[in-house]
Amino acid sequence: MILRTVNLTKQFGGLIAVDHVNIQVHEGTVHSIIGPNGAGKTTLFNILTGEIPPNDGEVYFQEKRITGLKPYQVAKIRIGRSFQQNSLFKNLSVFENIRLAAHVQHQGRFNFLSDFRSFHSPIDQAHKVLEEMEITSIAGKKVGELSHGAQRTLEVAIALAADPLLVLLDEPTSGMSPEEAIRMVRLIRKLAKQRTMIVIEHNMNLVWSISTVITVLHQGQVIATGSPSEIEKNPEVRKAYLGGAAV
After folding, report:
1. Which superfamily does CATH assign the domain made up of 1-78+164-247 to?
2. What is the pLDDT of residues 228-246, one digit of tens each?
């Protein structure tokens, strides 16, 4: 097991956004988290990656307690994450965005007097990620000149820059065209051959096609966990989320 939570809880005033959530993520799986808007999915991600602290409960990564670590500390233990909203340096190139993220694992990353070209490891890692994400052709372009779909792809590339063991993707196909979404599905399948992944996604076609395990959140609580076929047939899930409507 690569990651697990124990009674993880987060409250904002009178609202319990994450309510005693217990999730177990096994190494080598694609573990999708689904649920209606406001179910607590992104709040859960924010706790796992140190963006916000929980009110109660624990997070364990490779059986080591990581509850309360800062985001940079989470990145250093090799957990990568993409965000629902783009957080990119729009005036820098695609390559520079990835290279900067790759410096997280470099011992000399805080030596501001050194020329970045002396740090070969982050440069090599950036080139590796460009090839893995199949975006070498746009490496020199400024991020602000890219399409929305290309920026979403770059977000995933940045999540990979520090060579994570576990990757968290928050709605990776959000705002993409059908063609871009199909390409992202193919890339996620490719990436999942070498990494464990947790994916938040509303595109149910993507969820069914990539997931090993699916956890369903509703009003901050886990209401079901299982294989795609088990989740699709679960009556409580259909009532709370899938229903009879198109998703």
Report:
1. P-loop containing nucleotide triphosphate hydrolases (3.40.50.300)
2. 999 999 998 988 776 544 3
